[in-house]
Each structure stands twice: as structure tokens, then as C-alpha cells.
Amino acid sequence: MNIVLLEPKDTAQAEWRIHSARQLSHLHKQLNIQVDDTLKVGIRNGKRYLTRIVAIEEQEIRVTPIQQEACPAKLPVTLIVAMPRPKVLRRLIMDSVTLGVERICLTHSYRVDKSYWQTPFLQQLDDYITLGLEQAGDTIVPDIQLYKRFKPFVEDVLPSLIAPLRPAFVAHPYAETAMPHAIEHPCSIIIGPEGGFIPYEVDLLIKNGCQAYHLGSRILRTETAVSYLLGRLFV
Amino acid sequence: MNIVLLEPKDTAQAEWRIHSARQLSHLHKQLNIQVDDTLKVGIRNGKRYLTRIVAIEEQEIRVTPIQQEACPAKLPVTLIVAMPRPKVLRRLIMDSVTLGVERICLTHSYRVDKSYWQTPFLQQLDDYITLGLEQAGDTIVPDIQLYKRFKPFVEDVLPSLIAPLRPAFVAHPYAETAMPHAIEHPCSIIIGPEGGFIPYEVDLLIKNGCQAYHLGSRILRTETAVSYLLGRLFV
């Protein structure tokens, strides 16, 4: 946690209130904070500030802003990823948010177990986003959308994300050409499930305007592929 | 698991033996394998083969090789990383091995809790390596070394890893220049602990031949930084 992210309502008074158990625990145990220490605080979907700690009580810590700070820019990328196993979902969302992905679309795919859509973890996406933002020092919540049917997503939604200077790249182990690197325009990146997209799905993606590229001869886990690919595409 | 990695002794007979509980469980539950199916099998520190399943018994599965397959090449990189928290260690080693890192050095650093060196997880590095190799389809075990003292490592070991066409890059948030990308030579990359290297450590690294570069204004978790950085450096 490199900033503390607060809801706007907690910053409505002159003294801002930090009162979530998770944040209080981190500030006490990891940072051992004291009155008059400075602390980086962000307002969800708002600005980021350097603040000073003015009061430490059992149930809350209060801070006052000293000066505004710059938020890191987002990457101009839409990440489209086949719904992962529940235990991977948390890390995938956190890391994508930390890395600055602007929009995330979770989609169904033939090799996605239907039970994944029932996971209670999907109710906790906001928490995972907060963790990712606090790690990155960012305040702006990315847009996350769920598409439980693959074909309607690819045929009706995906084409609207594609333009001449906004291509969509599918990471596909059997493509003949290597993924581009150091691009200087926005894009969408599409990552399949464990076991990969089936040929029908790859064909449908290409028919609807996507370009398939390989990422080398090593098969990466979904969450590893996301960071690896973002490091490669945006320099 | 994209190949099954076997010990050389299990491939000494005409029929090779798969008998680890983890591998058997995966082959039955995830792949639902049957006699006469083909299966990718690697021999630890040896070659990789397409095999045929010839017998399925309760305690073992036996295969015979059909033809040799290519192993993916390693990345010409030494990853030097401050010893992470135990629960991060597993993923860090797995992902680094999957991505093809040739050598990994775990070092101490001021902000590394001394208790991290006592974790029983350090006895399981071989298991994490196996998981990383099986994910990548690789068979060659990377070299992993532990350095429990930072200064002797930086002064006595690190200089021997550096050469004109084999630089060492420190990922440092406060460096003025951005990390290079798409390099065409070997290198070492150095990643600090949670909270970063202290100024004394960064100075010592630079004094001993390292170059410090930033990775943008977002602060990444160690394991995210590794995949992101490898994607950026090697294309």
C-alpha cells in the first residue's frame, strides 16, 4: 500500500477520516505511524495528496491535506481476458489495476468452467481494485465489465473497441508472428483461459478484426502473461 | 502443467514411470488421460519428448517416447532479487523459471525481514522450479543462489556478473532515466524488497558497476515487476 485510498465522503470535513480496519492495521503494524508524520492519501476517482497525520484514535486516524500530488497516467489499453479461476481473479485484477489498465473485460470462453461465474470473489472486485490502486499510487477506478457469453461479446462489443490506430491483439501460442513491442497507440489485448482459446474462438476473434500473435515458445499463466505483455507493448 | 517433468532415473527403462501424486492427480483430474493418448514429457536437465501412454495403474502411469521435441531457449538474464516474503517466494520463483530466467540470486537487503531466511519454503525451491518448468515446457533447471549478506554479494560477486555487453540494471523508482527496452545482449536485473533499497544500497550497487533506471511512476509488487521487466527487456 503506497497510498491510502479514501471514499469522497470521508474527506468531506477539514480533517479526513481513515477508519477501515485493513488500512488502520497496515498503518500501525507496517508503518508504525505517529502524529505529525506525512502520509500519501488518494480520494477514490479524485485527486491525490500529501497529508499530515493530526490524530490517532483507536477506531480512526485523521489527516489534513498539505499539497496535491500527481497521479500516474493510465495505460491506453483494454484488457480482455477469459474469466480465470477464482483464486487467480484477485491477483489478475490487482496487478492489471496496478499496472494502469484503463478497462478490463472478463469474458466467457469454451474452456472457462461455468462455475467460475458463481464465485463470491466477483462481489469483491471493488476491494481488489482498491488494493491495486493503493499499490500503484493511483486513484482512478478502471472500468470492469463482465460478458458471460463469448460470441455476442466478440460480434457485438469487440468491433466497437477496434479502430485503425487502436488494434486488438490476441495472444495465441500458434500464431506465426511475434507480438509487437513498444507501440505508440492505444490497443486491446485479449488473453485466453488456461488451455487456451479453441480454434473456433480464435477464428471468430480474427473474423471480427483481431490480430493473433505469439508470445514466444513458453506458455505463461494468465496473470504472468498480462504483466509480461504490458511491459512489452508500452515502454 | 504443459509437460510432465520426470527425474532421469524414472526414464531409465523402456517404459518411463510417472508416479508423483501431484502429477498423477493432474493427469487424471485435469486431463482425464487414457491409454494411447499422447503426452509431453521432459527429463529434468535433459530433453523433451512427445510420448504415448502405455499403461495406467493406480500408483503409476507409464509412457514410451515417440519423438524428441524442442525445448524453449532461456533468456540470457540473471535475476537478482531481495528475498521476498515467504508467500511471494513461491510465485516469484515459479514465474521467473516459467519466463526462462537463466540464474536467480536471492539476496539480503536492509528492508528484508531476517525471519524470511528461516522460512521452510526455502527447502521447497526445487518444487517451485519444477512447477515453473512444467508450465513453460522447459526441462533445464536454472541456477539459484542465496546470499544472506548484501555487501559481500555486491562487492565480491556482482562485479563478476557485469561486462561491457552484459550490464546490470537496478529497478529504482527515483532514477532519472527510464529502463531500456528491447536490448539485444545478456544482462542482470536487480529488484529491491518491498519498500525499496535504502539509499546506501543503491549507492553501493552503482559504485559496483550497476545502472539505475526507473520503471515509470507506478510502484509494482516484486513478482509483477519481474514479468513486466522481462517483457520490456527481451522481445
TrEMBL record, chains A, B:
User: What's its top-level EC category?
Assistant: transferase
Q: Which CDD domains match?
A: RsmE-like
**What family, per the record?**
Belongs to the RNA methyltransferase RsmE family.
Pfam families per record: Methyltrans_RNA
Lineage at the top is: Bacteria, Pseudomonadati, Pseudomonadota, Gammaproteobacteria, Moraxellales
Name the UniProt record assigns to this protein: Ribosomal RNA small subunit methyltransferase E
CC per GO annotation: cytoplasm
Coiled coil where?
Answer: none
Q: Which UniProt keywords apply?
A: Cytoplasm, Methyltransferase, rRNA processing, S-adenosyl-L-methionine, Transferase
Query: Which stretches make up the Ribosomal RNA small subunit methyltransferase E methyltransferase domain?
Result: 73-232
GO MF, one term, reads:
rRNA (uridine-N3-)-methyltransferase activity
The EC designation for this entry is 2.1.1.193
Query: Where in the cell is the protein located?
Result: Cytoplasm
Role, per record:
Specifically methylates the N3 position of the uracil ring of uridine 1498 (m3U1498) in 16S rRNA. Acts on the fully assembled 30S ribosomal subunit.
What is one GO biological process annotated to this record?
A: rRNA base methylation
